[in-house]
Amino acid sequence: MFERVVETTEYLRNKVGNRPKIAIILGSGLGGMVDYVENKIVIPYHEIPNFPISTVSGHAGELVFGTVNGVEVLVMKGRFHYYEGYDMKKVTYPQYVFKEFGIETMIVSNAAGGANKNYVPGTLMIINDHINLFGTNPLIGPNDERFGPRFPDMSNTYSKDLINKAKIVAEKLNIKYEEGVYLGSSGPTYETGAEVKMMMAMGADAVGMSTVPESIVANYLGIKILGISCITNMATGLATKPHAHEDVVDIANQTGERFCKWIAETIKEL
Question: 24, 34, 96, 206: most buried, per Cβ within 10 A?
Fold first, then answer.
């Protein structure tokens, strides 16, 4: 694993002169953030040694290097999901590459279902904690101390400092937001009504099929994390119609302008 990560990282270093400290992962329908990136260098996933390939509609499958508000960034336009058939090491492989490349801060976004009755589609939610219902953990298996400790602490997975900075920026831009707990499960089916009741009882405010494995590994690697969910639909039992991925992407696109402005200004503050 370590040797594969080094090979991938060396390939990227030879392709670009950029040395960003901030990485951004864009969820379904949130790819418009790339329009805010200047001086772009785009590398398709299929050209990168050892990198998986995104197979989901709304995930372009590109690494984008460039600047946002004069700050160098690395953007993942498209992520990998457990439900695509990848094992957890593949799902979280980019986070290992981030660390080796020199990334210190990861901004992770997703499209999620609302499990809080006070939310509506289009709500932006800062993630302050998560619940792992994937039924597995990306750190299972032999541990390589070159990456991180055997038993990583999870008490400050989503950086309180980064959350406070994001709140200050949102208030300055007059962007409304919520703050809550994201619950991740494997998918690809949407949750049943009974499952959503259970999730709400557990304290979930938003539910989705990503982010948790990435955050576990980034935290393990010592990368600071800011997480933002775009509530694209209400979860089963709270929704007024059946779920469709096309609707998720559509609402995310509609919310994209507020999301992108928020992230771009927050990057400048970081």
Answer: 206
Task: List beta partners, residue 269.
Answer: none
pTM confidence score: 0.94
Set 109, 159, 210, 253: catalytic member: 210
Catalytic pick among 23, 28, 109, 199? 28
Instruction: Report whether pLDDT(1) > 70.
Output: yes
Instruction: Identify whether 233 is a catalytic site residue.
Output: yes
pLDDT in tens, 200-250: 999 999 999 999 999 999 999 999 999 999 998 877 767 666 766 676 667
The H or E element spanning position 15 is helix 2-15
Structural domains of the chain, count: 1
Active site residue 229: no
- Pairing type for strands 62-68 and 71-77 reads antiparallel
Report, in angstroms and rounded to the nearest whole number, the Rg of the chain calculated over CA atoms.
Answer: 17
Query: pLDDT above 70 covers what percent of the chain?
Result: 94
Residue range of the domain that includes 207:
2-269
